[in-house]
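Hi C.,

You asked whether I'd gotten around to modeling the 208-residue construct. I have! Everything is below, sequence then structure, no commentary in between.
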Amino acid sequence: MSWTNGTLTLDVVSDLGGNTDLMELRLAIEAVVTPSIEYAIADAATATFKFTADPDQSEKDAVVAVAATHRAGALGRAQLKRAEEFDSRTEKLITESGFSHNGRVFSSSSNAQSKWHAVQIMNLMGQIGFPLLLSDKDEHSYAVADSAELSLMYATLVGTGKASHDSGKALKDQLDAITNDAGQPDVPPNYHDLAAAIAAVEAVVDPR
């Protein structure tokens, strides 16, 4: 960390832990200094903040504390970002891939799921006539023979979605297991080195 004529330069790795949310950091710094920030820029190596005037020493000390707090949250931010990527993939798998039945693929979009739920309720109430004509993802007609087959299709829809959800949860559990606890042995998934912990998070790959 260095100050030069109202400009603060932070090392992304040593000062901030290698994972930086520039807007979050800017707001936190603005809360503890009087001069406004003219601009803030960051790349893989440094984060730079230009102030309208040079903060006084007490404010600079407060910025040091802000940077330390930001650094402490670096692993959590990395885990959250990765988890959101996994959640996005899970949602895409559930809503776009569809589910298979009798050699055909049927839609599992959000709209289709709502319709399937409604149809299954009617099925359980004995309010569906068979054979029931449905359309698969290719818009080809499919005749559902009876109530048992319709229930099986609904169960497949639910089971396919649950499998995607469970696979996403397993990936996020791997993320949550990664820690940066100096009080525990330096053995994966715990890393005394913060950069190593964040690298471990980024190494968790979604194979789906």
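If it helps when you're writing up: The domain at 2-72 is CATH 3.30.70 (Alpha-Beta Plaits).

Thanks,
B.
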